[in-house]
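B., you asked whether I could sanity-check this one before it goes into the benchmark set. Here's the sequence:
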Amino acid sequence: MVELTLAHWVYLAGTVLIILTMLFRQNVLVPSLFMTFLVGIVYTGSFVEGLQTTFSASLVAAAELFNIFLIITVMTALLHALRSLQADIRMVRPFGYVMKSGHSSFWVLALITYGISLFFWPTPAVPIVSIETKKEPCTRLFN
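And here's what the prediction gave me:
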């Protein structure tokens, strides 16, 4: 059986604080840094090691998130390449003829997004469809 220490309870309080901060639609950076610092102090018993914990946690998080940032950057660059070739418009234009009402547009957009996400990373698939259909409706896409 695991014995819960004060560091566990401080971590739990930090998690609750961050969730409350998100519920109030505020920035979570300061509470998360402060609670990381506080957990570091409580766990190690040293103010200096609490500071080191804050910086070490930031470096670990940055190392873990770098791969995600790299993928997002590459996909954004590929989307801009598609946009410069106007391939994004050409991919969506044929479906404009089917989108006559709100209901048909909803289902067509859902199916197109699903289909495009099979070939592209799913997150950029939504902007390809939705941004191009919102930009200049009926003039740029459907003519």
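One thing to flag: Confidence is low (pLDDT under 50) at residues 135-143. Otherwise nothing jumped out at me.
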